[in-house]
Amino acid sequence: MRKQRGFTLVEVAIALGVMGALATISILALRGVRQRGNYASATGDVVGALRLARSESFSRGQAVYFIVDTNVTTDALGGPASPRWWVLLDVGGNFDFTAWDPANPAGLGDRVLSNGILPNGVTINAPSGYPKQLKQPYQLIPATSPAPTATPVYCSFCGTSGAKNGYGWVRFSPGSAPTATFTAGTTSSSFGQQLTLTTNNGTVDFTMVVAILARSGAVTTEEQP
């Protein structure tokens, strides 16, 4: 009669170690997939908001603003507060950004058409050396040298001081070119402006540049490796 043999403690330990390593790898892979999904979704939302603002301006015959807050702060509960954006219809044609309150975006009598917050881990920011100069024919949009150097680099139409530090706007207006105009003091370029979304999956940065053309108000994107 054959004697049955069980597993030794060493074999059990090795098996548990292998299972633990595989579980860790799976968790990291899933986390990376989720982060990449958040990044793709956030980019789509921002591009969609800009295109909504442009199309609503043409269809209504009124100015429509895309406003972005690039700041990453804390919310009322002490948790992380991500960058956010609004699409705002300028009802009276007299929108005043200096008096506009992000806590009450319709407080000046204007109408919020859409708004959103970027997912955790996705920021309007740029790793060192980014954004790179965009490919032709968009190479004159502010980015980093040799294109006009954006200030700040991650949002060429955002402010760098004052009460609205980190905020910026794009105004879409029907009728005559330029269709898109930008925050006062914006990096000099008659061609257009850009903002850059970035995330990191734990090992790799993903960077997407969203460019807005001044003359037509058209929006284009370029993912930069």
Secondary structure: elements and pairs:
Layout: H1 9-60, E1 64-69, E2 73-74, E3 80-81, E4 84-89, E5 111-117, E6 123-124, E7 167-172, E8 180-182, E9 192-200, E10 205-213, E11 219-224
Could you explain how this protein is built, in words?
Helices cover 23% and strands 26% of the residues. The chain has a 5-stranded antiparallel sheet, covered by helices on one side. It has one domain. With 225 residues, it is α+β, with helices and mostly antiparallel strands. A hairpin with a 4-residue loop joins strand 9 (192-200) and strand 10.
How many domains?
1
Residues in β-strands, percent: 25-35%
Main sheet: strand order: 5-4-1-7-8
- What's the SSE pattern? HEEEEEEEEEEE
Main sheet record? 5 strands, antiparallel
Structural class: alpha+beta
Output mean pLDDT: 87
Termini separation comes to 65 Å
Shape: globular
Rg on CA atoms, Å: 23 Å
Tally of DSSP β-strands: 11
The helix fraction, in percent, is: 10-25%
* Poorly predicted spans: 25-31
Total DSSP helices? 1
In short:
Helix content is 23%, strand content 26%.
Keywords for this structure?
225 residues, alpha+beta, five-stranded antiparallel sheet, 1 helix
